[in-house]
Each structure stands twice: as C-alpha cells, then as structure tokens.
UniProtKB/TrEMBL annotation:
This is Isoprenylcysteine carboxyl methyltransferase. It is a multi-pass membrane protein. It comes from Robertmurraya kyonggiensis. Pfam families: ICMT. GO terms for molecular function: protein C-terminal S-isoprenylcysteine carboxyl O-methyltransferase activity.
Length: 186
C-alpha cells in the first residue's frame, strides 16, 4: 500500500506543477508579480527531502502500516478533497509560487471564506498524516518543524504582497477567518 500511495502523491504533485506553470504563465502575462523567490527553493527542497526521508525511514527501519491507518487514510482523503477545493477555488490564481496580480480579484470563495491559507493548512496536515500512516515518526516531527520555519517566512511575504498589491485587506477587513497568520498586522 505504501508504494501505491507514494506513486499517487508523486503523480498528483506532477499534475499540480503542470497546473502551476500554466497559471504562472497566465498571471505573468497579465502583469502578475512574483515575490518570495528567495525562500521558494528551500520550500521545494523541503518537499523533496520529505519524500526521501519518508522512503528511507519506512524502508530502513522496516516501518509498517499504523494500527490507526484507516482513520489516517480518511484524514488523507479529506486533505486531498481540500487540496482540490483550494485549486478549483483559486482557479488561475492558484500556484506553488507567490504570484500576485496587482489589483486582481481577491478570491473569497471556497475554503477562503473560512481560512486565510487553507492550502498551507492542508500541507501541514499531510506532513503529519502521511508519515503517521506508516509509523514514520521521525519524518513527521522533523518535517512538521521545518515546514513551520518555511511558513513563518512564506505567509508574511504572501500577506504583505496581497495587502500591498490587491484589495485583500479591504475585502477581508470585516470577515473573521481562522488563522494561520504569522503577522500581527493581518
């Protein structure tokens, strides 16, 4: 089961990269501005190393499926539904990079009605759920902590760009949404 899940996730990520590149070209063609380039490479490295660590921990330490596997699988499926919901809600604005279209529409539908950064919440959950499904506890802890470090840089950069280049602050000023936020300004 482990191999099938990893193959599924890798294929999913490749499809997402295709979508992201297509959306990036469209947004930049419309005048989109990319920010946060300095940390993006570290985020990519983090995600690649996550899979390497997961594979190594499972195979080297001969990890097996968790006894909580059925519950964790339901959690994984929910995150995948959430991931699709995020991508569909953002449409051409969805990307793995921070690209903001000045004065572009601020997305206020789908999970964005409830959460500031639902995609990051989903990734945080995945970085816990996937390794826990196969008792890869070291990978779960290490990459959760590393992801917190990356998000503590990425979320403020994204919030700043959205506040400065769009009507993000105005659109959501009266609507309370669940965090994550690493900035007191937002």
């Amino acid at each position: 089961m482990f191999t099938w899940l990893i193959v599924f996730i890798i294929l999913q990520r490749l499809v997402e990269l295709f979508i992201a590149r297509k959306n990036e070209a469209w947004m930049k063609g419309q005048g989109g501005i990319e920010v946060g380039q300095s940390h993006y490479q570290y985020m990519v490295i983090l995600h690649i190393c996550f899979f390497i660590s997961l594979l190594l921990e499972v195979f080297i330490f001969n990890r097996t499926s968790s006894s909580a596997w059925p519950i964790l699988l339901i959690g994984f499926i929910i995150t995948q539904v959430g991931r699709v919901w995020v991508i569909l809600s953002l449409g051409k604005y969805w990307n793995t990079k921070i690209i903001v279209l000045p004065q572009g529409n601020v997305v206020k539908k789908g999970p964005y009605r409830f959460l500031k950064h639902p995609n990051y919440v989903i990734v945080c959950l995945e970085l816990l759920i996937i390794p826990l499904m196969f008792e890869a506890y070291l990978t779960a802890v290490l990459f959760t902590l590393l992801n917190i470090v990356i998000l503590s840089i990425r979320i403020p950069a994204e919030e700043k760009a959205l506040l400065e280049l769009t009507k993000y602050g105005e659109v959501f000023s009266k609507q309370k949404r669940f965090l994550p936020s690493f900035s007191k300004r937002v």
